[in-house]
């Protein structure tokens, strides 16, 4: 009888220990990172690199060539905010072929749809609305913005900017598109519901924009003047932020989730300038550059993790991605990717970053 009591106590202890292990594994913070990935558009490589953030040595390369073997340049990539799809702007190497939006399934990392938008467009960037209902793509050569239904993959609307705009990077926020125009040296604000377009002169070659999650500001990079413009949405006011003297030309930029810092990739190379390997950190409140971080050559694309702890920068000249730790403002890892990495986007278990 005594042995039976001891046995029952032992069984109860085993059950409690197993239950504790199960609960502990559910509360393990590493679990929330199991699906964390970074997608990189390799322009000259004609592919998308998928970086596994749990082990950056175990990465995937997705070719975006079609069944005939035609190569497409992957200029930009964007994870949908709901995390259920990844969108790529694809420009064919054959100039007579059609520009495409390519949709990737993040669960299988395989192409599930090719959406033909037209010829001679030179598709630049792609974004989605916050509900992941529509995707938008800038057509650089035709001065248009395409709206595509994210479920039916049909073109539902086109926004015409007019001749001489050369739209490039853009972002969506609160039912509006904020578009950086290179030739017009302006930012177009498109109200999606009624198609109204307001043009904001910026006085420089606008390459890309960034939004803050507190929905107060829009930032635009001006390549030729080596500036970042801060646009106050509520007051429609512009503040110009001069970059350091050694800046060679900013491209992409991204704000931390707490809306306190802005990271600016300084590329250089065009307009007869040398290649840059710098990322500038701007304090959004003071409008000042507070840190310069050395990364790889031709720093181009930038995105920040959902928790705001790490920054990922594509180095087009080195075929790498630099990983910056926000707490220390230092590069903590350099990851090899495909040829001429350009756009970059982040995916976590709870979705993508808009």
TrEMBL record:
Recorded hits in PROSITE patterns, A to Z, give: PROKAR_LIPOPROTEIN
Instruction: Say if the entry is tagged with keyword Signal.
Output: yes
TM regions (residue ranges): none
User: Where's the YNCE-like beta-propeller domain?
Assistant: 36-347
Keywords from the UniProt entry: Signal
Output the InterPro entries linked to this UniProt entry.
Host-pathogen_enzymatic-act (IPR051200), N2O_reductase_N (IPR011045), WD40/YVTN_repeat-like_dom_sf (IPR015943), YNCE-like_beta-prop (IPR048433), YVTN_b-propeller_repeat (IPR011964)
Instruction: Output the NCBIfam families linked to this UniProt entry.
Output: beta_rpt_yvtn
Q: Which PANTHER family match?
A: DIHYDRO-HEME D1 DEHYDROGENASE (PTHR47197:SF3), PROTEIN NIRF (PTHR47197)
In Swiss-Prot or TrEMBL terms, this protein is called: YNCE-like beta-propeller domain-containing protein
